[in-house]
Amino acid sequence: MSLRAKLLLVxxxxxxxxxxxxxxxxxxxxxxxxxxxxxxxASAEALARGVAVRPGRxxxxxxxxxxxxxxxxxxxxxxxxxxxxxxxxPAVFGGANPWLRVALARSAERLHLLVEVADTSxxxxxxxxxxxxxxDRLRLRLRGPGGDWLLHVANNTPGELRVAGADxxxxxxxxxxxxxxxxxxxxxxLALPQALxxxxxxxxxxxxxxxxxxxxxxxxxxxxxxxxxxxGYVGALEPELLALAPPGMRVVLVDRDATVFARAGTLRADxxxxxxxxxxxxxxxxxxxxxxDEIATAPGERRVERPEVDxxxxxxxxxxxxxxxxxxxxxLAAAVPLRxxxxxxxxxxxxxxxxxxxxxxxxxxxxxxxxxxLVALLLSGGVLLWYASRLAARIRRLRDAAESALDREGRVxxxxxxxxxxxxxxxxxxFAALLDRVAAYTDYLRSLSGKLSHELNTPLxxxxxxxxxxxxxxxxxxxxxxxxxARDGVERMGNLVRTMSEVTRIEHAIEAAExxxxxxxxxxxxxxxxxxxxxxxRTFETGTYPVQLRGAPELIVQALDxxxxxxxxFCPPDGCVRLxxxxxxxxVRIALANTGPTLPESMRTQLFxxxxxxxxxxxxxxxxxxxxxxxxxxxxxxxLHGGRAEARNLADGSGVEFVLHLRGMG
Length: 666
Hints:
This protein is α+β, with helices and mostly antiparallel strands. It has helices at about 5-10, 15-50, 235-245, 270-275, 280-285, 305-315, 355-405, 425-470, 480-510, 520-535, 555-570, 630-640; strands at about 65-70, 90-95, 100-105, 110-120, 135-145, 145-155, 160, 165, 175-180, 185-190, 200-210, 215-220, 220, 225, 230, 250-255, 260-265, 295, 320-325, 330-340, 345-355, 515-520, 540-545, 550, 575-585, 585-595, 645-650, 655-660. Strands 1, 2, 3, 4, 5, 6, 7, 8, 9, 10, 11, 12 and 15 form a 13-stranded mixed beta sheet that branches. α10 packs parallel to α11 and α11 runs antiparallel to α12 (about 630-640).
């Protein structure tokens, strides 16, 4: 990974900021919800105390039968479909698995009962049969201002209902009804006379099967049929609830069976649909309100079956968050017990309200968090990117300076120094100090050849003089060959010293060269005659173009001497050497081509380095050793004249061509 990528990866750690902010939003949302819950519970408790001031309008503490109000009388056919929803809120009996359901309703001051019994083992009988016989039947107990009556209800076959008194005799009033059989059991629907006023009802169902098993369920107390008081919807409570309840809230009162006996108020419109964008609302509900379920019942329900209501009927306060059936609004509901003056629980009060404030406050906090996070990410990302770019640029400059600090000849160039106190500044200063030591050592090596040539001249002269003296002495014939070989060695060492001296002299001459304007074509023409004699018997061709150049003519002649000497070494006697001069842009091109062996491809870029030679053995006519300084001098002269030297094979493969591209000295 690059340094910039690593810093970018480090910058991603800034993402912990939105995560921490999101945790803060969640904590804030929880605190807001707790505050809203406490506020609505306090309102519900205050409202419950206001309602309980007049306990006579509350349901009985021991429980009773809720009498629903019907707009029209249902048909007595054993079907509950025309009970206008009252059949969905029955009183149930039978323990953990209720098998007796009783619903009561009033229409035109006439009391109706709908009784459903789950009984798959039919043992049917008639109402007027003696009570000690084993058959399925219902017992009803009615109480009113006119007296207390016990009724037996039983049918041997489906159809019109048979009702008898306690001793199987006739009743002082007529009860209409219908007995309907079905796969799950039977249903009894009956209606009491309009003139019969009833304020308490007791009911029990007896179920027997063929094996003699017996079960009984209903309003039984110590085996006796007990009465339950009747109560219904209290419309007179609605104005009081509207006066006591806070605006925009809905109040519902339920009895101990969770049946609604009073309600008031409506939920105010929720502005969050207009104030919040749909995607934000969906985000908040998906992440913050995952525990909020849709409300199970509609506002016009007869019974409220909710966990918070069950908690309130047990004597504790309950709170729940829900959505409305459409899922567009967030609802907060609190249920508290309704207690009379004696402390008995008469029912529960359910208070509901929309809670757009939580979503709106959450949205404001989220919007600010999002804005701050984006600004922080942009600033931190921009700063880190700027820092990474600046750091990368400094490293690139240091790399480029390190790559160009040494040229191919080992000369040390200027290395930038920085005063930065960081690690890169330290590294730059260390590089500079190292290159200073390398430059000092390189200067020593560059001057070594001149020093050696100067120091070796005297020992060589002494050896040469000693050999001359030995040569004039009378020596045995067998010693003469050794003397000749020693003289040859001294001569070769002398040539080496002269060559090193020549290179040093040329380098000094290049450093001290002064530019002048001269005719380069005339200079080459003057050299061509001498080159023709030197290259004989090889063919020598020239082709020049008149051109002026500003430079050092004596150095150019020395460079040409080196090229001609190189061509003379490799061109065969029957070969050809061609010298040409042409104009090239704002400079000139001098080319010397010769037939002979071609250049290895790997050596083309190294020929002009110092101490590089392709000769496996001395190839000069005088037998002198070749050190590889000639083409090195050619390159130095070309560079002095703002150009370069290059070598390439001829296109037809017949030889090589050395080219000098010169622009002139400044």
